[in-house]
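Task: encode each sequence below as structure tokens.

Item 1
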Amino acid sequence: STHMIVMKFGRSSFKDSKTISNIFEIIKTRIHKKPVIVCSAIPGITDMLFMLGTESVFGNKVKVKLILDSIIEKHLRIIDALFKESEVKINLIQKINEYSEEIKKISRGISLISEMSDKSSAKLLSYGELFTAIIITSLLQQDYVQSEFLDAREFIKTGDRLNYGENEIEQIKSKTKSILEPVNKTGKVGV
């Protein structure tokens, strides 16, 4: 059996570049335990993403753009403080921009039907955690720590309901194990 630890960092851990540096130092002290890192969004980002979705319902393109620009700017400020100029930083910024484009597509979809379903809301809100997870993965890579970004959307599916039945939980457990075990066996940090 493969042993690993799960390290969950809450919102206050992602407050700014200093607190994110602290997370990084904590993770480095546990590398030998093959950790899997679970990230929360930067404080305020989930609320901003929800506001973006709400403004999308009303077709308010100007407010949507302002909110998204603010979300991206917050992340880019942190990235600038944490990363030296490198290929890792360039790739990270490219990924942030890809996520920004995905958020725009979700926003357009919400706007087209003038409704934000539970499913589209959950999808939109997940970007807060995706941003921080890719930042932590890149921070580890910048320090030559073998790490792999694990997109939780690949193994945690909610279907149309946000409350899980026993069968769904078993499927999530099985899928999670099939994704985490190979990463763990290679000795990489999964984020």
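Item 2
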Amino acid sequence: RVFRDNAVASLIGKFGDRVLTCGIPGLRIDELGDVIDCAEEKTGRKVGVIGLDYLGLLDMADLDKTTYGQVSKAARMLKTFAKQREVALLVLCQTHRAGNYGDDTPLTIHSARESGAIEESADFLLGLYRKEDQLVLQILKNRKGRGGECVLRFDRTTLRICQVGDITFQDWRPPLQKEPEMFSRGGSSGQ
């Protein structure tokens, strides 16, 4: 909580009245539009970026019976919401890790907890993991570009994250997609 409060205070200090926070817990996705409308009315400016500090804090109970179904539907609904409202949406979510606490294994595109719909819906997927005394920021998915990683340093006294090295890009190729069977080559069409 202290880290979050300090991060918000830092953003407000840097961007002034261009940063608004909403402390209402358990919002439903359909209520986010009301929050944006209120913010735009208050500031007289269009909201361009929304940050949800944890996907699990949204009220998703009415979306599905299972957590997997709730997260899957929420991910898709948030993508649609962001497109309709023309806002960038930054959503933080937990990852599942196979190793022990403190494991310094890099994340994969499938590390998001509860649902594959998170990586499916995202245009960008970033991961952050600890490697010895450094942090590594990974670009796990970039729908229109390359992935890569960058080594960062976390200063515990100022709660700042600083870039240590350049971003190392990886070759990225779009995944191969199978042709639908009705259009497959070499088979008979039945006509």
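Check on item 2: Confidence is low (pLDDT under 50) at residues 172-191. Strands lie at 49-52, 88-91, 124-131, 134-142, 148-155, 160-163, 168-169.
End of task.
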